[in-house]
Amino acid sequence: SRKFIVAGAQLGPIAKDESRASAVARMCDLMRAAHARGASLVVFPELALTTFFPRWFMEDEAEIDAWFETEMPNGTVAPLFDLARELGIGFHLGYAELTPEGRHFNTAIIVSPEGEIVGKYRKIHLPGHRENEDWRPFQHLEKRYFEKGDLGFPVFDAFGGKLGMCICNDRRWPETWRVLGLGGAELVVLGYNTPFHYPPAPEHDHLQYFHNELSVQAGCYQNGLWAVAVAKAGMEEGSELIGGSVIVAPTGEILARAATTGDEVITAEVDLDRCAEIRANVFNFAQHREPQDYAAITAP
Ligand code: CDT
Description:
By secondary structure, the chain is of the alpha/beta class. It has helices at residues 20-36, 61-65, 78-87, 142-145, 174-182, 208-223, 275-279, 285-288, 295-298; strands at residues 3-10, 39-43, 90-98, 104-111, 117-122, 155-158, 161-165, 187-192, 226-231, 234-236, 239-241, 246-248, 254-257, 264-271.
């Protein structure tokens, strides 16, 4: 069997004026706690270095770009890379990426226990809207600030298995999980920032935790893979973000769940060989998939 302990490092709110250095220091504390619990991989949330800035409408390019990282690693995140190397623990980190060509992405990386970036993903399903919508109590301007990711849904050899990546809204789409499953992913790591309040359909606000778990559990079961889904949580600049970080088995069972909406580590033992319980049986793709009848899925 291929067993190891994974950790989800949920982050409580990050204030608008909280420095990246402070967020990194909090993540270092969580990394130490994860390591003390035997974890070889720790998963941090989406856009983990700053507050969830797409809640504000901005027009000034310099003001927007200030939320983005132009290099990875850089001086500010170096303590996280150094600590990972010292402890021999890998990690997943979400951040806003500004490329040398001036392109903006909602990005996540996987870093090996040696401190090398071994996986990178740029978010494909960008939720929200492009223009200021005054009627909302807060904005969700991911479509304004980010380009759609251009790396597909990648799967990487790491931690003795195949790791897949997606980010936040991607987890709600069955296509995300199926493409990762077809790519051979055995463990999917993802971060999220999910507000409790969904202004276009507030009647669904009470379902936010349910929809989070429904999406991740279905993705795991229907593709026979593990997932670590990690929130940035709590009351952040007047917008309440759900917590509920979870580690889910290929059976769809939740093995660990955050109990707070603050900084919190959850852990579970992952056995990648357990993917076969599902993939060799009910979701044996080679035996039972019928892709000739799925054309509508990929039609634009
Ligand atoms: N960050 C992110 O993708 N959040 C969305 C919020 C709902 S859509 C406005 C999510 O799917 O959780």
